[in-house]
Amino acid sequence: MEFRIDSSVLTDAVAWAARVLPARSPVPVLGGLLLDAADGRLRVSGLDYEASARIEVEADTVRNGRALVLGRRLLDICKVLPKGPVECAVEGARLSVTGGAARFGLSLLPLDDYPAEPELPAFRGVVDTDAFAAAVGQVAVAAGRDDSLPVLTGIRLALDGTTMTLAATDRYRYAVRTLEWKPEGEEPGDGGGADVVVPARRLTEIARSLTSTGPVRLALDGGSIGFESEGTRTTTRLLDGRLPRHDKLFSLGEHAVAATERAPLVEAVKRVAVVAEGDSPVQLAFAGDTVQLQAGYEDDVASQRLPALLEGAESMTVAFNPGYLLDALGSFDTDSVRIHLLGPGQRALITDREDGVHQHLLMSVKPLV
Predict the structure, then answer these.
(1) What is the pLDDT of residue 341?
(2) Are the beta carbons of 145 and 139 closer than 8 angstroms?
(3) Which CATH class is domain 252-363?
(4) CA angle 254-258-264, nearest 5°?
(5) CB neighbour class for 367 (10 Å; exposed up to 12, middle 13-18, buried from 19)
(6) Contact 230, 55 (CB under 8 A)
(7) Any idea what the Cα angle at residue 215 is, between residues 45 and 22, rounded to 5°?
(8) C-alpha atoms less than 13 angstroms from C-alpha of 101 in its C-beta half-sphere
(9) Which neighbouring-strand residues pair with 285?
(10) Which CATH class is domain 123-237?
């Protein structure tokens, strides 16, 4: 195998495929990246037992062939290569990488021991990558981090007609985001419905890597999910189980609604929270056309007042974990938010506008004494 390629193109391709490589693996070849050069193209592939990634780029192929090398070592080399053309060639039991006056040699890993790349599941439809990445980012903040409860570390992805619903919860908060997508088939909805849970970390990485690539095709079956855009494809295994349904949780019945500007509220929460130790809450006291934020106890206290319009009650005082509240507010991209309130110690629902495209549920805690 021998090919020539621009250093920046090679670095980007190697970095994209290396995302799925395990940090540590008892199987050495799973730390490898497979380079496949043929007919003016270079394909770079990586996988572990949970995910796979593959990217194709243009290259000047002198000799067709394949080589398996340690992926992270190759990425380290790519990062320090001089700008300009790079020559890569298999020489005996090594892959030589030459850029300018710099030359590197990498030991080859046994190709026969490398697992076969998983097949893509059946294609279901197409979604815009930028909209999808934004939606994943908005719900991922609510996903759990406790690996002893694997399903809560995932993001629910549900397909119903032309609507895709993404949702995540760690039992203390619950984020939901809907967006449009286009099922494949002769008639709308022929792509079929689905309701699966995807590892949040993997889905977030995938969504970020696909931004600004245009539409991406979504592939799905009972055990894995895949995404394919021009020159790239990636798969990841699904999590077993289902997230708790959010329908009843988000149905608040009779409640008050507070509307306020999002950015000033974020800054105010950050400001007063500097005196909140540990899990000490930030209190929001709504009354009329203002909200009074307060945090801290005894001598170490902070407060700030902001404009806010409360409807459905004369006053309402609630308190939240400041980290959870900031995560929730930070997941919105609108100028203002609406906070739907049942009362102290009860559910509170933050929305961006009336249609509820993006919703984030928080449990309020006991207000400050």
Answers:
(1) 96
(2) no
(3) alpha beta
(4) 160
(5) middle
(6) no
(7) 30
(8) 0
(9) 292, 317
(10) alpha beta
Q: Are strands 173-180 and 358-363 parallel, antiparallel or unpaired?
A: antiparallel
Domain 2-113 homologous superfamily, CATH: DNA Polymerase III, subunit A, domain 2 (3.10.150.10)
**For the chain, domain boundaries:** 2-113, 123-237, 252-363
Encode burial over 161-170: b for 16+ CB neighbours within 10 A, e otherwise.
eeebbbbbbb
The rounded distance, in Å, linking the Cα atoms of 98 and 92 is: 16
Check for a shared fold between 2-113 and 123-237: yes
The alpha carbon of 284 is separated from its chain's Cα centroid by a whole number of angstroms, namely: 30
How distant, in Å, are the alpha carbons of 29, 118, 156, 227, 231 from that of 126?
Answer: 33, 21, 18, 9, 16
Nearest to 203 by CA among 173, 236, 245: 236
Report CA torsion sign: 353, 255, 308, 286: negative
Q: Which two tokens stand for residue 246?
A: 């959010």
d(CA 77, CA 75): 5
Cβ contacts of 363 within 8 Å, gap of 6 or more: 172, 173, 345, 346, 347, 348
213: phi then psi, degrees, rounded to nearest 5: -105, 5
HSE-CB at 198 with a 13 A cutoff on CA atoms is 30
Q: What is the pLDDT of residues 328-365, one digit of tens each?
A: 999 999 999 999 999 999 999 999 876 679 999 999 99
| Cβ pair 115, 68 in contact under 8 A | no
With bands split at pLDDT 50, 70 and 90, how would you rate the model's confidence at 369? Answer: low
Question: What confidence category does residue 69 fall into, taking pLDDT thresholds of 50, 70 and 90?
Answer: very high
300 half-sphere exposure, CB direction, 13 A CA radius: 7
Q: How many Cα atoms sit within 13 Å of 309 on the Cβ side?
A: 6
Q: pTM of the full predicted structure? A: 0.90
